[in-house]
Amino acid sequence: MSTGLKTELKRKAIHLTGLTVPAIYQLTGREFTLTFITVAFVVFVVLEPFRIIEEIRDRIKVKLRLINPEVVTGIEVIEHHVTEIEREHEQEGVAAHIYFTLASLIVVYFFSREIAIAAVTVATVGDAVAAIIGKNFGRHRFSNGKSLEGSLAYFISALLIIYPLLGLKFALVGALVGTIVEFYDLPPDDNFSNQVFVALSLYLFSLL
């Protein structure tokens, strides 16, 4: 297994923790899910400067080293793993988990239970499957680096996720929209746009 694929697998394994949102929604309902996402979002935003600005981390580590050197060792191990899976644009900018959590908050707040669960799950699983299949089996590449195989993997996984929740017609619409959004990496970040566009397309289709 190549180093690039190992890194991608590690990144997507963390990305799949986003499935806690639909799982909590299923088990506890909308209100608790909104509270959970809000708390997670606030924590992520508070910690984000420490991830981006190395000088802040260094100052903290100097102080902690005087109290407990083992804690500093643990922090440095975490830093290494975080740096390893970061995208280039995340090194000095907002990370994917911030966008993902914000989108989840919007989707759960504004859309129905079935649409919210479908959108968050598709964005989580579809993105992971597309990346892994695309990197490992992608043979037909487009100019943006994406592959036909990866896009098909996303479409099929989205279809299988949405169908039990909303039916075949909704599944086809949501899968198609999600595949297009994932392919073009629509701004501000695909972890945000994927959830929002899938949810919006399912909602608009329900009005027809």
TrEMBL record:
The protein's UniProt keywords, in alphabetical order, are: Membrane, Nucleotidyltransferase, Transferase, Transmembrane, Transmembrane helix
Task: Name the InterPro entries for this protein.
Answer: Dgk1-like
- For this protein, the parts annotated as crossing the membrane are 32-53, 94-111, 117-134, 154-180
Q: Which is one GO molecular function term here?
A: ATP-dependent diacylglycerol kinase activity
Which protein are we looking at? Phosphatidate cytidylyltransferase
Give the originating organism.
Thermococcus guaymasensis DSM 11113
